[in-house]
Amino acid sequence: MISFQINQKNERRATLSLVVLFLFLSALLATSSINADIVEADDIQISTEELIDKKLILGANHTVVSPTLVVGAMPYYKINSPFGEFSATGNLKLGRRIHEINVIQELRAIDKSKLTIDSVGDALKKPVEGVVQILGHPVNTLKGVPDGVGRWFKRTKRRVEDTADAINEYASAHNKSSQNGSSTSNKDTVRRVSEAGKRYLKRFLGITGAYRGLAREYQVDPYTDNVTLKAELELLSKYSAAGSFGMKQLDLSLPSALGDLTKVGDLVWDSDPLDLLIRNEEESRKLGISSRAFESFFNNSNLSPTDMTLTIEAVRGLKDVRNQALFFGFVAESQSVDEARFSIRIVEFFNRYHQNVKPLQEILLTERLPLAIDENQVAVVFAPVYLLRWTQLVGEASVDLMTNVRQLTTGSKPELWIEGKISDLASQELENAGWELHKNTLSTLLDN
């Protein structure tokens, strides 16, 4: 397995290159040679108008910079706004970013001088510390609770105890599955999961009902990685009038303005972070998550509660497909936020394909690339990329992928589904290699 070391300086290139490697088998495994004289460049600058709808390029509060850098098969957009420069990897995130920028404008336009601060904002800091302390001792009862937060803990106690039970249950199951000489003890497992729970709470428990109410009103992800938007939501959620500011009609018809949030919005808006964590843990167990995947999935800081919920709901739609729980481990291996989003996109694709195109029978993981087998034993592969070109890496890796497909399936020509565009050269070469191509159709399949 290839390990990718991503540092801050080269995070953009590493993340985007990782996506390409993630979607196609590593070129290091390739066994066939590709004619270097006919391959396309790995990185190109391309007019933004060739990649996205014109109405996305210029808006009241933003301009998408042109040209756009395409690294591998992914466009890396730059967006200028009155609130600074934003970035977006891929078209789905671009649509979401533009919507978030418009929401920031709306939130900053609110006259805060007419609002009063709600003292609950500061009071919630103590319960955060209290719950972290409790999860540090998952089998203990509530002790050392800060004064003045008793009512909050009345509704939290049950959930904290449920989480402790879940941790202990997982630890027991983990030990039973580790009879092959593993030295991992129950105590060590509880400690690791407990630490994960504490990190989770420190990251998300401050996302209050008022905060989530604002997120719902403005139709944004409460767990967004947009720090500017988060700051505005946090500020306004401290006012007693939070959730009733009289939102203007924002344009939600823009491509990907809400994207995959529409599928799990009620869950992430209505549930506090701890409730959502417990719910997701329980649902993942029902769907057959392995003990190893459970730990890595809920311990991955690149996955937000929204990401976890999206994954679980997508896997649920595949519950009658063999090996569908393998997707938990697949998503859990994500080493960046962008990789996590593209991994989840793949799971969502197979969910929609299974429901709307043709029933699937089995999920296979070839190295890191998921492969689905339909009822006719035809292999189906999905690449959530927006400009697939015939680069050296894609050429070599596609040959290796075809080899694996032929070894694992007995059906006719395998299908390769591309979310975005594909160059003429890539189309020609892939079809010559035996792929049946489906391109420029995935937004309809995934987002409607």
Helix segment count? 18
Radius of gyration from the alpha-carbon trace, in angstroms: 23 Å
Q: Work out the number of β strands.
A: 13
Poorly predicted tracts of residues? 1-32, 119-171, 177-186
Structural shape? globular
Mean pLDDT: 74
Q: What helical percentage do the residues reach?
A: 40-55%
Structural class: alpha+beta
Roughly what fraction of the amino acids lie in strands? 5-15%
Q: How far apart are the first and last residues' alpha carbons, in Å?
A: 35 Å
Largest sheet: 6 strands, antiparallel
Which helices and strands, and how do they pair?
Elements: H1 11-23, E1 43-46, H2 54-57, E2 58-59, E3 62-64, E4 68-71, E5 74-81, E6 84-89, H3 91-108, H4 120-123, H5 125-136, H6 150-176, H7 186-204, H8 209-217, H9 227-236, H10 261-270, H11 273-286, H12 291-298, H13 305-316, H14 326-332, H15 337-356, E7 360-366, E8 369-374, E9 379-383, E10 387-388, H16 392-408, E11 415-418, E12 421-422, H17 424-432, E13 436-439, H18 442-447
Parallel strand pairs: 9-11, 10-12, 11-13
Antiparallel strand pairs: 1-4, 2-3, 3-5, 4-5, 5-6, 7-8, 8-9
Helix pairs in contact: 3-9, 5-6, 5-7, 6-7, 6-11, 8-10, 10-13, 11-13, 12-14, 13-15, 14-15
